[in-house]
Design a protein that fits this description.
- The protein contains seven helices and no strands.
- By secondary structure, the protein is mainly alpha-helical.
Length: 163
């Protein structure tokens, strides 16, 4: 018998499940909300960003184009982060018993994931607002499922004042 087989035979085995494939058991909608709020903020800044008066001035034009590109890249990155964070909650935290209690759960997550994609495709304040609202709706259910609905108010207080 080799050493590995010996250890496997004498050590207890434990089954672990978690979002990061390590048994941390840490789940929270806050990272999704931060990402959604970042998307919203980038949309607001993109809509407010005015083209330069003199597009022939190379420095001014490049400054403008760089500002637009950086905001778009940040919007894209955070829309993807939001989707990833939501998918972790959807596929790893929520269980069949939650679906019984919250029958619209799959539709909420599906629509929120679609909003993440829509916000990557466009610069639209209404879509950004809907994404933030969808994350909040999921967060409310999340805290109810954890048996601590009061934490939702703390979550809202913190995340609604990010900017």
């Amino acid at each position: 018998m080799n050493f590995k087989n010996y250890l496997l035979r004498i050590l207890p085995s434990v089954t672990a499940e978690a979002h990061c494939d390590v048994p941390c058991g840490i789940y929270d909608p806050t990272p999704a909300k931060i990402a959604a709020k970042t998307v919203m903020r980038m949309v607001m800044q993109l809509q407010e960003f005015a083209p330069p008066q003199d597009f022939n001035d190379t420095h001014t034009r490049l400054h403008y184009e760089n500002g637009i590109a950086r905001r778009i890249a940040t919007k894209e990155e955070h829309a993807q982060k939001c989707k990833e964070e939501l998918l972790i909650l959807w596929t790893d935290f929520f269980k069949p018993e939650h679906l019984a209690k919250f029958p619209n759960l799959h539709e909420l997550f599906w629509n929120a994931a679609k909003l993440c994609s829509k916000n990557k495709q466009d610069v639209d304040r209404e879509s950004a607002d809907k994404l933030v609202a969808a994350v909040d709706e999921i967060a409310k259910i999340f805290y109810e499922a954890k048996g601590d609905p009061g934490r939702y108010e703390a979550y809202k207080e913190i995340t609604d004042t990010l900017f």
